[in-house]
Every structure is written in C-alpha cells, then in structure tokens.
Amino acid sequence: MSLDILIPVYNGKKHLLRLLNALKENPPEMEYRIYLFDNNSSDGGARLVEGMYPDVVVIYSQRNLGYGAALNRLIEVSNGEYLCTMNTDIYFDTDVFTPLLNKMEEDKRILGIAPVLMMPGKGIVSTAGDMFPNLWTFLIEFLPIAEMVNRVLPGFRLWSSLKPYSFYKKGGYVNHIEGSFVLYRRKAFKKYGLFDESFFLYFEDMDLQIRFPKKSMYILPVVAYHVWGGSMRTKSSELVKIRHRSLLGYFSKHRTPFETLFIKIFLKTWGITW
Prior knowledge:
This is Glycosyltransferase. By secondary structure, this protein is α/β, with parallel strands linked by helices. The protein has helices spanning 13-25, 45-52, 67-77, 97-106, 135-142, 145-152, 186-192, 204-209, 236-254, 257-269; strands at residues 2-9, 31-38, 57-60, 82-86, 90-91, 112-119, 123-124, 128-129, 172-174, 176-177, 181-185, 217-226. The chain has a single domain, classed as Spore Coat Polysaccharide Biosynthesis Protein SpsA, Chain A. The mean pLDDT is 92.
C-alpha cells in the first residue's frame, strides 16, 4: 500500500511550509511521497521547499494552469495506489492519513475519503453532501436566506446539498466532498477520468465526483485544519469571477439549458460579470 500526496501550489509560502512541517511531524505509517506542482508562483516557496525537503518532488509550470490541471499533472507523474489531493492551507497535529487509509482498505466501496475539516476559532468548515449543485442550491447560496436562518437557528444548515454539522460527529457515506483534502483510490481516476481542466478553480471536485457511483465518498471523524482562503493569493474580485465562470461551466455540463440561462440572467441582473 503506497500513498502519494499531491499539492498544487500558487504562492502561500507560509501555509505550504506549515503543511510540510505537519507532514514531517505526523507522517503516515505507510510508504508515501509528496509531489508539488508550482503554478508559476512569485513568492519562491517551491524553491525553498527544494532546499528544505529534498525528497519532495517539485514540478514547475511557466504559467498558472489552474487547480485541476495541476492535480492532473501530478496524478500522471506519481504512481501511488492512493492519491491525496490537498490544498496548501491544510494542517494537522496527528497522523490523519493512517485511519483514512485503513478505512479505505476495510471498505472497498469507498473511492474517496476525507477527514472533518475545522477552522481554528470557527469550528467545522467541512462541506459534504448528497445533492449536487442545482438551481435551488444556487439561490440559497447566492441570496442571504441561509445566513438569516442561521441567525435564528445557529448551527443549522439550510443548504439542502450539505450535511448538517451533527453529521460530522459520526461521519458516513456521501455523494460529494469539497476538494481541499480528499484521499482517492488511483483506480477511480483510471475508471472515471481525471479532473476537467476547463474548471480553472472551483467545481472541479463536484465535476469529478458526480461521475462516481452514488455514496462512494466518505467522511471519517478524524480532524484536520483548514485556513479558508489561505491558499489563495488572487484578488477577491477576480476569484468571484472565476467562481461564477466555473459555476456556469458546471451547470452547462451537468444541468439543463434553462437553469444555465436562468443563472446568466440572474447574475447580469445583479450586475455580476464573469
């Protein structure tokens, strides 16, 4: 049993070094190797890693290919039986990999598994569920409905696509897991394909997992930490545009023409560009 840890990098040097230190201090029990794909960063983080961690494989790109494309390059050059895709702004204070891998060895139905993600000072930030994005989930997310309900019922998630916070105490099977930290079987990519590189950032995880059999993803109640946005070094206005482009790409690929057109008109009405 071998594990490859695949990390796309776009600046965020401080977070990257913390992640690698967490891996050094809390390594998996099995054989593993770390691969970085540097998406034309400007902060010198990948070069620093080469000097500090000579066993880490670093691949450089002359331009920013996007998150999914970076992962695809790493999947192609790695050879582990298990592949962990991970943001740079993840860290942990225990060996989270071994229990995840043990669960996958025990349950061959699982194609992808993730820990519960916590944000220091904020609590659970994991997003996993059964319903894939549709017009209803778009409206709930875009309009402040969920936020208003949460003020009345703290801890309640109105988003019908997401599991409630209570779910993460025990974990279980789901259809989709947000892609900041997911451990996959390599055979899942061989059978269902790689990440769609037309998704520069956002929704590449949903697009992949919607191809999997139902209930083949799993949340295990072991904890890792996610500093939301820590791996981003792009202006927030540009990230919003990228997210909307990916949203429309997802709807064009997986939903009806009516839903896609509705969202385009809705965004234009609100003066939002993409």
